[in-house]
Predict the structure.
Amino acid sequence: MAKSPVFSFAKLEQPKKGVVAFVVSKGSELGAIAKAMDSDGRLKRAMDEAEFDGKLCSTIELLAPESGHEKFVVIGCGELGDAGEVEWLRVGGKLRASAAKAELLTIVCETGAGPLAEGANAAIAAGAKLRAYDFDKYKTKSNGKQPKTSKIVLGVEDPSKSRKSWKIMEAITDGVITARDLVNEPANALGPVEFAKRAEELSKLGVEIEILDEKDLKKSKMGALLGVAQGSVRPARMVVMTWNGGKAKQEPIAFVGKGVVFDTGGISMKPAGGMEDMKGDMGGAAAVTGLMHALAARKAKANVIGIIALVENMPDGNAQRPGDIVTSMSGQTVEVINTDAEGRLILADALWYCQEKYKPQFMINLATLTGAIIVALGNHHAGLFSNNDELSERLAAAGTSTGEKVWRMPLGKEYDKMIDSKNADMKNIGGRWAGSITAGQFLQRFVNDLPWAHLDIAGTAMGSPKNEYNQSWASGYGVRLLDRLVSDNYEN
Ligand code: BES
Ligand code: MN
Ligand code: ZN
């Protein structure tokens, strides 16, 4: 795999070699260090020539400056007062890209308007690390682009404060990378059993892991989940990850993820075009696993349960058929009209299990659940469905701060009626219209009174537009969002 750059924080001073980047805010001039290094004024002239005004992520590059460095890069961060986490991630990502071939990049975190705070410095480093991510483990020939080791030094005012901030940010970043790795992995290498093993690796960070195998799932009467799994030669798994970083008596909060390692559609098979993307139909489970990684690595002061339901949806002599009626763990029966609406079936049992066994403060599930949410929202917002305004508002706020945005969609009786069945308690599809909403209604039938939110991440977990800090097909969407939800609201 592409090696991550190595990061360090040092006191602000004039770097001696390598590529040097200067961060400049809108309307400011070069900072004092940059000015001192630009002894012949060529950098300043290049900026004037290009009418550089410090706009976010606009850059000026000067190759082989008089000083003998490889390159100077000036990058704008926009108005200092407007810059938050997303802006710093973008700056860090862009700088890593413009110095991708360098062995040493020094970022002088001194804007013309003053030095940057530790949170900004840490987010710049995170942006650079996320940008450096490349899923290249199956490429046998190197593209020659990666340096042997690339070192990134951030010149900051208070290195120890910045290091502390980076420790937390790096934990979160590593959680995002875990999620991206899982989603990018092809399904021949990552079946339910292999996924469970990957989750088990989190025990190194102090996460307790329990793996339920087929026997356990049968014992719990998870007929909806097992109906989906029965067409695959690879047996289902459910993994419960527990992080107890909060007060002993505090009820846990819970996250539940859809983990369909590959979704052919089953007997209601999908068309061939683009079907390969269905290796990413475990994006919800990947986000929950990445979140648990982040929370444990930064030792979050919260009690958290992460549950992932892992199956493969295949057509087979033993696969379930349209018209089959299955009995879920809740006792409710479901008529399976379309075997391609499988995510809701496995989540029905996972949500019920979570609620009955752990009695959490709230449950949030993540799922690449419907193509319809992509029709509605494209790739820029996940669909949010919830029975609780407070939880929804907190998610929306976390979305704004992290750039992992959510958009609330309606739920209601009229939509719920659309999944009534003449042969069973409900059917698993609602007809042509409002497809992402009827999927949400289905899930809600497996949630009692506790606060619950469903995030439909079909458009955001994979194939979302590339940006300065993500060039990967799998974005790792959800990890930063939910980590922020926890840190802003649920840590003591
Ligand atoms: N995994 C798909 C949804 C999906 C589509 C995710 C595109 C990512 C990209 C899901 O299991 C599915 O097949 N949903 C069907 C539901 C339909 C049969 C009611 C869909 O969206 O077409
Ligand atoms: Mn499907
Ligand atoms: Zn699916």
